[in-house]
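Try it yourself: sequence plus protoporphyrin IX containing FE, in.
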Amino acid sequence: MAHTPGSKQVENDIRNTYQWLEDRLPILSFINNSVGSNFMAPRNLNYMWNFGSLAGIALVLQILTGIFLAMHYKPDVAMAFDSIQHIMRDVNWGWLIRNMHMVGASFFFIVVYIHMARGLYYGSYKSPREVLWGIGVIIFLLMMATGFLGYVLPWGQMSYWGATVITNLLSVIPFIGQDIVVWLWGGYSVGDPTLNRFFVLHFVLPFVIVGIVILHIWALHEHGSNNPKGVDLKTKGDYIPFHPYYTIKDVFGLGVYLIPFTFMVFYAPEYLGHTDNNIPADPLVTPAHIVPEWYFLPFYAILRAIPIKELGVLAMFGAIAILLVLPWLDKHPVRSARFRPLYRPLYVLFLMNFVLLGWCGMMPPEGIYVLIAQAATAFYFGFFALLPILSKFEKAKPVPTSI
Ligand code: HEM
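Structure, out:
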């Protein structure tokens, strides 16, 4: 009787074990304070606030599927392509793990792009969350590096030529550019040493991202989440406990996310990739169009829009770097775009322009496509240039005093 489940004795045993662990390593209270019932969050968060936790889940899924892929993959130019075929055909469930990793990479970017667009709309980058935003931009850069390195590993035609084009960009660095490229390749062209080191870096970087995500969450907890109205919280009634309210909402969001994700994994795993990557890498045959993965396309379009290569490279990296100074460009006192009659339409145009840039990145760099890409590049940077002016002159709608 004494130890039946639910009895006083069992309850005491659990409490004592909990206390024993707390005295030695307070990890359970740490979790409860971070994502449990002790962590208080604004009560008016909408579904746009689901994407941070979704990004975390997508990251973990990439790491797990990646570890299993690495058990069968061979980072050797003579074997890499065949080892992928081996994973797809011979390894038990290998096709599923690879499809999840491939589709998962694209979905991870979709989630993070929405997460960033949310921050841009609700002014989450503004004081006091500048560092939180900046850490996010660094995560985004590392994600791009990881995605690029991973795409080289299957050693298909796009892997090889994508790696050649992108690494060559560094040759524009004055004086030492060419030496840097040779150093990066480990030889005089993309080859076996390149593949080997790209594999090592592709394996390591996600763990670096995990470390930086921890800093991201730490910074988030310092001031708590922003909210759709963008106003500071005042009373205790403005908050609800993260658990169970947002844990259940995040689980629901995950369920919704898994519907298109599993559909793509099972029915259209190659849809977001390029068919040429099913042809083994051939240094003697250049593909008609070298296109990166879709998530790089807007930045690729900026690179190609500018006829001077050095300036193109600068503009491409500048397009991401400018996000780092965003909190100092937009000093308007109102956070949420809901109350900013000028910023709001400008934001919508910015998103549409970003999609247009992506489309330009897909098209051959000639004729009208170059002109459109140039106009879209000008608008991309124009948006950021307008923000300091809006900060001074835009008259906001009446902002509610509380959420
Ligand atoms: C691996 C990628 C990322 C993970 C796992 C991640 C995770 C999270 C989580 C869990 C939250 C809290 C929940 C939420 O507000 O949605 C959050 C908030 C936030 N993240 Fe990220 N994030 C990532 C990338 C980024 C990037 C690339 C940026 C921006 C460049 C960014 C900017 C922000 C901002 C500004 C907030 C605060 C939002 C608010 O309170 O309104 N994050 N992130």
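One thing you can check immediately is this: The chain has two domains: 43-292, 303-403.
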